[in-house]
Design brief:
Strand content: under 5%
Pfam family, one: Caleosin
CATH topology of the largest domain: Recoverin, domain 1
Helix content: 40-55%
Largest sheet: 2 strands, antiparallel
Number of domains: 2
GO molecular function: calcium ion binding; monooxygenase activity
Number of strands: 4
Distance between the termini: 67 Å
CATH class of the largest domain: Mainly Alpha
Number of helices: 10
Keywords: Calcium
Order of helices and strands: HEHHHEHEHHEHHH
Strand order of the largest sheet: 1-2
Protein name: Caleosin
Family: Belongs to the caleosin family.
Amino acid sequence: MPGRTADAHDGDPNPKPAHAPTTSTPSPSLLPPQPAPSALQSHVLFWDRDADNIITPTDVYTGFRSLGFSVPFSLGSLLIPLFFSYPTRLAHSWIPDPLFRIHISSIHKAKHGSDTGIYDNDGRFRPLLFEELFAKFDGSGVGGLSYEELGMLLAKDRCAADPAGWSFAFMEWWTTWLLLQKEGRVWKEDLRQCYDGSLFWRIREERAGPKGWTQGYGWKDFFKGLGYGGTWKEWKVGKGDR
């Protein structure tokens, strides 16, 4: 147009709105970068249904149901906020939360004893310890842990005079087995995705598909095992099975 001066958007097919920085609201490029969530925070984000950085007991129940767990098991999962709400609350107040909410920003404070140590005290993932776990306990070298090998892992991690830690570790690995086992083992890549939380989104997506989630262990598998004259403890997996 005659008399029109060129501006910064001339020639730009997708112009973006300009930002008007002030001392209280600086340019986006000058804002401090937001820290990425730790692996432990990512592990629990699936249960933050409304993305408010808080996990309520209702979130816990709904999350387990969306992963395919039964109503009784999902009700039992309400022990999680009962035991772990207060440790995460301590980063904000000494007063317990009457609603038993879990604060994701301080989830590392809920880390318990007698665990694998794969999460450090800040909730970060330790890849070398993860690799060491399989080097020590995957006796057959197939890339997965059997029920017996998980039992040996639990026994190795037990600290003296720590019954609470023993119990929490057992419940976590039991839940992992019920959710993940395939051909009698918990496989390495599935377990890695469990640690960073991506597994739970994958399960929800597959459950919505035509085939559903084809892994895990339930009553159907238990009776099927008995029908073959044994239990899950006697399933054998060869190197070519996966």
